[in-house]
What does this fold into?
Amino acid sequence: MIDTAFLQDVARYVDGRVAKVVLNGTYAITDFEVKEVTGSVLALKYLVPAAEVSLITTIELRDAADNVISTNNVNIPITADHLMIQSLTVKEGDE
It folds into this structure.
């Protein structure tokens, strides 16, 4: 069993590493409406402008050096400016 405080520390570390969201490998978002850790969950809220992105197929979280931290394949049509809410939960894995 991993201590809860340690999981919270890891979530804060991930928060410090995430510098941007990259959609479809090309459109970078660096301004977050919310970027905060609660317990062991990192919450991100950011605006996706419909004028720039009409369909989201991948969502990547990247660090300041542009290294990929996380990748999610999705299929999200964007017909109007869209406020995305994304969370990362740090938890003990199952074997």
About this structure: The mean pLDDT is 96. DSSP finds one helix and seven strands in the chain. The longest strand covers residues 68-77. The helical segments are 4-17.
